[in-house]
Amino acid sequence: SSAKSSHEAWTHLSCLYAKRSTTHMIYLKDKLTMITRGSLSVTDFLVSIKQITDELTALGDPPTDADLLIYVTRGLGPTYNVLITAMRTRDSVVPFDELFDKIIDHEISSFTMKNKIQIPHHPLQI
Hints:
This protein is mostly helical. Helix content is 67%, strand content 0%.
């Protein structure tokens, strides 16, 4: 169908893209609720969440830090239970950037603990 005026064309395009934006927004929100770390590195998992968050923000519907805390902690898996409990029981909601940093610190600390070099103990003989 052809528009009879520029206003009519603009209105049609505006409605068309608004519907697509809403559909895309719902898709992204659903993706956030379903995302899990799986075989991804922790960094890749968190970056994926950040990318979805950025897209939702661009669409005018940014998730709250509380929402992000739920999505991140739900998707991390049991390896992070101690950290998850600490983050969820704080008096205030952890901002996503701080949550990102704490999870990466936890990952580095866990890696370091798993890969400690064992120095054999040999008693001194005099």
